[in-house]
Write a structure and sequence with these properties.
mainly beta
């Protein structure tokens, strides 16, 4: 830091310079004042010398002190407790990601549909055309740090929470389900305590994005935007929750360092559920697991629409220069989807009136490849398989088993500008549970339904500086007649889906499959 002498001080120094005083003394003819003037000149000489020394010192650049130097320079009067505090925070980092956008979206519904069974014609209600909004997208703040034990080993920690900039934080209720989870609460996002060693890696406890999710996160240039690849990738049912691409609570995981380009991550999340069918909240949790909001699917307030027991997730990756390759696997044990067969003859004939066989393991695996060409072109591709293991006679309602594809291309136009294109495809599933306008209720569901989908995304980004980016994007999800994939899954505060404008008081909004959901957006992202 460079200090400059104030103009007033410089003028004072010039005015009281020795030549000025000497000329003043020569003009005085009274000899009686000579001694007094001489003494004054000596005092001004000393003052001038001191002021010049101060000015010369202040004009020199001051080297930036290290944290240790600053702590060592604290006055002796500072207590030992204060010194320990300043020493402790030297490895603490405050960080964040703030993202807001102005959007418009349309559900793309038809004016009318045949209802379940085709008995009559029904029409969506409410405002289902284009609607504008302001959205908070993947915004969060947190602190993280370490406490060294040795040259290689440290205790590491992180506390992270979601930030709602354009809306008031509160419970995650919707027009179709009721949830007590508060996303804006303290440590609602990735938070942990663990041990890390530069030689063998890190072991952590807390909650985190699973390795299955993080393994291909770099292949998603639309993260938090309309058209985030999570609309289809890792999404088995077409809802805005993403079963295989999520954060796992009460987890224990290992993160390896890179060994000759190779790295490995593995996680286990114990079920902590006293219910054999996983139909209640897990111990220590405020809601159902697996993004199963109580009441979702229009059923009773229970965990019967995707809640599961223990979860396991792992990935293996290799990186060498412009090439990145990864493979990932995740398993959810005993996933409860008895809500999919409620009120069917099979369920009503069971002893409890609910088919208890609709509880089975669900798993997914994927392979991803990314390559950065010398032309500043980055290409990413993912192939994904998702499966649900249930009895053969329930296959007609199994919409959770399918394959998916992702292809993205990002071209750097300048050092600050880029253009990205994305395409995701969902294959058809073996069955459809028939909960919407998609199949009759006189059986389990529909075999081999026409419920595939394609999503197309286009985004332009401009870096204002190293921390700030402005972006604009457009996305459309083109559902086949019996598909209901949404738009906005993966971190947006505002999403759009297959439900119409009915309220909970009216019984719950209806979901209409086959929509062509579109969204346009312009926003700004700031990282610190």
């Amino acid at each position: 830091m460079i200090f400059k002498m104030k103009p007033q001080r410089a003028a004072l120094l010039a005015a009281f310079s020795i030549p000025s005083l000497m000329s003043c003394g020569a003009a005085l003819a009274d000899p009686a004042t000579d001694a007094r003037i001489e003494a004054l000149e000596q005092q001004v000489k000393l003052l001038t010398t001191k002021l010049q020394q101060v000015a010369d010192t202040a004009a020199q650049p001051v080297a930036k002190e290290s944290h240790a130097d600053a702590v060592a320079a604290l006055p002796q009067a500072v207590s030992d407790r204060a010194r320990k505090f300043f020493e402790a925070i030297k490895d603490v980092e405050f960080y964040g990601n703030l993202d807001v956008s102005v959007d418009g979206s349309s559900k793309g519904f038809k004016s009318s549909y045949d209802d379940v069974g085709g008995a009559r014609v029904v029409s969506p209600v409410g405002h289902n055309g284009w609607q504008s909004d302001l959205s908070t997208n993947l915004s969060y703040v947190g602190i993280r740090g370490k406490h060294p034990f040795s040259d290689t080993m440290s205790l590491v920690y992180q506390l992270e929470t979601q930030i709602d900039i354009t809306a008031t934080a509160g419970s995650s209720n919707s027009t179709s389900a009721q949830d007590s989870t508060v996303k804006g609460a303290l440590t609602s996002r990735n938070s942990y305590l663990g041990l890390a060693d530069s030689r063998w890696g890190a072991l952590k406890l807390g909650k985190t994005d699973a390795p299955y999710k993080t393994s291909t996160a770099r292949m998603n240039p639309f993260s938090g935007m309309w058209g985030d690849y999570s609309v289809i990738m890792g999404n088995t049912g077409g809802d805005n929750r993403v079963e295989f691409g999520t954060r796992l609570d009460h987890a224990l995981w290992y993160e390896s360092p890179k060994w000759n380009g190779w790295s490995f991550n593995a996680l286990i999340s114990p079920g902590q559920n006293r219910g054999y069918e996983n139909s209640i909240q897990a111990s220590g949790e405020s809601s159902c697991t697996g993004g199963n909001i109580p009441g979702s699917g229009g059923g009773p307030i229970a965990c019967n629409d995707g809640s599961y027991g223990s979860a396991y997730s792992a990935n293996l990756a290799y990186e060498n220069g412009p090439l990145y390759v990864t493979g990932a696997y995740e398993l959810h044990s005993r996933v409860n989807r008895t809500g999919d067969v409620a009120a069917t003859p099979q369920a009503l004939a069971s002893p409890t009136g609910l088919d208890q066989n609709d509880v089975g393991n669900e798993y997914a695996y994927k392979v991803g490849v990314q390559y950065a060409f010398p032309t500043k072109t980055t290409v990413s591709a993912i192939y994904e398989v998702m499966r649900r293991n249930i009895p053969a006679y329930l296959a007609e309602q199994n919409e959770r088993s399918r394959n998916g594809y992702w292809l993205a291309l990002t071209q750097d136009l300048t050092a600050d500008d880029s253009l990205s294109l994305g395409w995701a495809h969902a294959n058809a599933t073996p069955g459809d549970p028939g909960q919407h306008n998609t199949s009759p209720l006189d059986g389990i569901g529909t075999s081999n339904p026409d419920n595939g989908a394609n999503m197309y995304t286009l985004a332009y980004k401009h870096k204002i500086d190293k921390q700030t980016t402005w972006y604009a994007d457009y996305a459309v999800t083109v559902n086949r007649p019996l598909a209901h994939y949404d738009l906005g899954a993966g971190g947006r505060g505002v999403t759009t889906d297959c439900h119409d404008g009915q309220t909970i008081a009216s019984g719950a909004p209806n979901c209409y499959a086959g929509g062509h959901v579109q969204g346009v957006s312009a926003g700004v992202n700031y990282k610190f």
